[in-house]
Amino acid sequence: xxxxxxxxxxxxxxxxxxxxxxxxxxxxxxxxxxxxxxxxxxxxxxxxxxxxxxxxxxxxxxxxxxxxxxxxxxxxxxxxxxxxxxxxxxxxxxxxxxxxxxxxxxxxxxxxxxxxxxxxxxxxxxxxxxxxxxxxxxxxxxxxxxxxxxxxxxx
Length: 155
Description:
Glutaredoxin, 2 domains, five-stranded mixed beta sheet, 15% strand, globular
């Protein structure tokens, strides 16, 4: 909820400062990522850009842990809470972590075509390689920290 409040405040400030429409949203989105990271609510190894996450994973021989969710989704926030609180431990030597927004058409369609989830319950959490190939079946909906850890276990 803090992220949404920060986003709304930054969008309002940008509009007052003379930026409107897409410019205001772009500025606010960038600043939200910086503000959220500064609050310590996301792991420092989170990558905000999907293409960058895949390229980084490919270059460094790591996998991509990708989550597709929505800011206002309770189950999504529960998963992010597990990560933030250390109940789900993402090993930065093995994974590049990326959060994708389900409301972004490209993110959603790419995720669905890559992982082909059996249902459409958020969040979706999957493991892929840097070449964007699914390595395991993605989890969808609410799961326990142990189930998320199992998803990231060695193949």
